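Purpose: get a first structural picture of the assembly so the mutagenesis plan has something to point at.
Setup: two entries, given in the order below. No constraints added.
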Amino acid sequence: MPSRVGKYTMSLNNKPIILGYAGVVGKKESEGPLGEYYDQSHKDTSLGESSWEKAESRLQTEAVSLALNKAGIEKTDVDCIFAGDLLNQCISSTFGLRSLNIPFLGQYGACSTMAQTLAIASIFTEAGAAKRAVAVTSSHFCSAERQFRFPLEYGGQRTPTAQWTATGSGAAIIGSPTDNQSSKNSQIHVEALTFGRITDFGVKDANNMGAAMAPAAAQTLEDYLNDTGTTPMDYDMILTGDLGYIGSQLMEELLMKDNIDISAVHNDCGIMIYDRNKQDVHAGGSGCGCSGAILCSYIMQQMEAGKLHNVLFLGTGALMSPTSSQQGETIPSVAHLVYLKA
Amino acid sequence: MPSRVGKYTMSLNNKPIILGYAGVVGKKESEGPLGEYYDQSHKDTSLGESSWEKAESRLQTEAVSLALNKAGIEKTDVDCIFAGDLLNQCISSTFGLRSLNIPFLGQYGACSTMAQTLAIASIFTEAGAAKRAVAVTSSHFCSAERQFRFPLEYGGQRTPTAQWTATGSGAAIIGSPTDNQSSKNSQIHVEALTFGRITDFGVKDANNMGAAMAPAAAQTLEDYLNDTGTTPMDYDMILTGDLGYIGSQLMEELLMKDNIDISAVHNDCGIMIYDRNKQDVHAGGSGCGCSGAILCSYIMQQMEAGKLHNVLFLGTGALMSPTSSQQGETIPSVAHLVYLKA
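Result (structure tokens, whole complex):
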């Protein structure tokens, strides 16, 4: 059973384990600094599909399939799947996963979705509501551009604060440690969780998501540190996804006002995914698939290799829509935290 | 701890209880057969807001506020809120609930969202991951029309199979029965759950959601009956939401092929919400707010009054988007079941 620690944090006493994980990306991401770590890289951004949306669905299908294979688990042995993405009505998830025949629970947390799905799947396995659950998310540059900004053909110019939506998907299989079949080989478990409250600092610029999301990330991290009585130096890495360059700096500044210095251990998936000098994406990467693909490849690989032991993963999401922005609304944001331990 | 029954069903042994509930609707719904049962009815469909989306957000704000009041619980005493709606990026939920300062977990299950949020909130309270959790959803005729179909000003004609998206919201507060503060007065608890698998029978007509969703409802109900070894006659009511007239008939026909006759106990929120003769809405009502408002007012009131004892609530959702339909895709659907007992 999970036990509540402080006001916002849950400690998972059964310690659900990560049985398998996979990251799948597109061409630009495969050319970034972490290119060698992804399980699959596509040179064709359309993945051979007839639309960007279908290509994004395919990313999820592949990520789940690879993660199941690596876990040595059949899809019939999975009790439920938690999935979400950025597209209207989460169609990447519903169309990408409809053929799996696994009980499906759609999630919407914008770019925090990898943390949200991983956290809820962990609670389900911890509580025995599922023996094995899947957490998966995706994003695609081309489907996101035309839905949130402009069709690619328009050739719109991006502002310096804009982040580049990554083409990618990450999937993790979470298992109950009390289940014999699922306890093989895994060295990563979910130790604790903090679900975030919505923050809104009044940022209205839909091309500066990092600024909108930074307060949510800072708040959830502070909630977690307060609840657990730990400090940033107790962790090998505090990994946000995806604040980019501007949001990461703002988050560090916000925390410094409360005398919390994370600079020595903080990194951000939006910073890690592209090479700032060779791949100009302005303020960094973003999209659920950015943190999803990095967490479910490079980070988990480093943990299994013994190079990272304690990772606080903070998924951050901007909860607006083009309609809300057109109506003059500010951008509410949220961040969820998952403490992974190897 | 929940215990799994059969392949797809979970029995909740701690029996999470419904501490409070509220249904809020618009003018047309208040003029329907259940008008007297709603906690609040708005004569002005805009709720005094400057956009339909803001009006829909307000429905959620009010439903949660009323449900908390009826439960005698402060918002600071709620551990997390599960919310979702039909709008792109679930903005009714995020904007309607951002000021609550409660950890927020966005859900996307289309019109199955009331069942999905209620089910996940029940597992969280059952497992001790939350002492008290909120489940809420909404829909609004005007915001849904312009997003999914045509702007109202266009005056598009509706087909005979079309359902009318209800303007409404339903909210329920779920509590752990082991918590002293929350055990007062409640007579309704969540006994069991079945999460649905995505079905897709190839229906492409976005104006015939009932037909698309009927197979999902039939499948989840069959899963539940198989898992539990019960029959339809073991329940006072099997309540779907929202298949409307066409989908309800199709669901009954599908089940009859497997010799399951639900006709004596089946009702559907999309049928109950409007008067077929006086309020012509063609194939009935729909939208997350339809089943949300009816479940969280009339149905729960009947249960507390001792007129209903065993209710299987089946939320049904069509998981397509305008984009997927424009790309020629079929309509995948899902249904989740919550067994409520008084």
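The first strand of chain A starts at residue 2 and ends at 5.
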